[in-house]
Design a protein that fits this description.
Number of helices: 2
Oligomer: single chain
Largest sheet: 4 strands, antiparallel
Strand order of the largest sheet: 4-5-6-7
Distance between the termini: 60 Å
Radius of gyration: 32 Å
Length: about 140
């Protein structure tokens, strides 16, 4: 019984203190925004040298995929060799292009596969752009 009474009075006291502090704060007082710290950049070559690595060897980089075109989906015909690709150009909404259709100025959808679409200047020429579907995990 005494413990219950103590808990009840302690709760009542905590409520009084909470509301007293809440009402004592002026309504116009605004919180000061805290600026986010600047991101830290690390020089990986200098770090490697500090840790005892030898001089960095030049690494050949693969050519970047064309960011102008985005492959959203494919419909490949197994027996006919025909199909269509859903491609977005320059961030525009994606459209479906059948094989042989002009996707962009000077680019035709040459063929579609299971995971990729090949674009080139003409239907029979070599592909200049190969778009691949992103791998979903």
């Amino acid at each position: 019984m005494r413990t219950g009474t103590l808990i009840l009075w302690a709760s009542a006291g905590a409520c009084v203190v909470f509301w007293a502090l809440r009402l004592a704060t002026p309504a116009g007082a605004a919180m000061v925004p805290v600026a986010a710290p600047a991101p830290v950049s690390v020089d990986l070559q200098a770090m490697a040298q500090v840790l005892g690595a030898g001089p960095a060897l030049p690494v050949a980089q693969a050519p970047a995929a064309p960011s102008r075109y985005t492959l959203h989906g494919l419909l490949a015909g197994r027996d006919s060799g025909r199909g269509a690709a859903v491609i977005g150009v320059n961030g525009q909404p994606a459209r479906a292009y059948p094989v042989g259709a002009q996707v962009d100025e000077g680019l035709v959808l040459q063929s579609v596969g299971v995971q990729q679409a090949r674009l080139g200047p003409s239907q029979q020429g070599s592909a200049t752009v190969t778009l691949e579907l992103p791998i979903k995990k």
